[in-house]
Amino acid sequence: MTNIKHIFFDLDHTLWDFDKNSALTFDFIFKKNDLQVDLPQFLEVYQPLNLQFWKLYREEKVSKEHLRFYRLKDTFDALNIEVEAEVINQLSDDYIDNLSNHNHLFEGTLEILDYLKPKYQLHIITNGFEAVQHHKMKKANIIQYFDTITNSEMVGVKKPNPKIFNHALDLANAKTSNSIMIGDNYEADILGALNIGLDAICYNYHNEKIDQSIKTINHLLEIKTYL
């Protein structure tokens, strides 16, 4: 792929190990708020619910505030745990405030960024909240690898909306013909990119069934086979 000059990465679930960091954050905030919750049981219910709420958020069907509150409330309701709305709001704030205090990266993240940085301009396109994403990248010591960071709040739309990809390309002074997107979410990252003519590599750490026509990796260091 000798024409590539710009690489656009998703952040959560692609470079930054969201599930591990999120679990550590919940463990901390439950203890902080003296809430007796079985963490593995909570996460088993919360994680798929959270993904559903993020899908609704991408589709502009729920607000940021709705997502933050009801992903917790619906989880507690499903577990038959009574938690007052005031406590849920506090947990929601504590979660955002503490999430970037845990900064586990996927295996191979720093090695692949070190490999790519001298050869390409690297960029981030994320649906995550602006302040949170900036803190994550800074505390994980990866922010210096990226020339531009595009988030959904600055554009007003979320992946897979073409506007966020086009905004990122314009910000990077890049073209679809000399760029590629790397992310884990088939709908938001891969189809979103392909729909505007931007090539894409799916980081399939979920081990989902992916169309054979899609460039796919199961470990970040496999990017070297393409770039």
TrEMBL record:
Signal peptide: none
Pfam family, one: HAD_2
Domain of life: Bacteria
Taxonomy of the source species: Bacteria, Pseudomonadati, Bacteroidota, Flavobacteriia, Flavobacteriales
Species whose genome carries this gene: Mesoflavibacter profundi
Record's protein name: YjjG family noncanonical pyrimidine nucleotidase
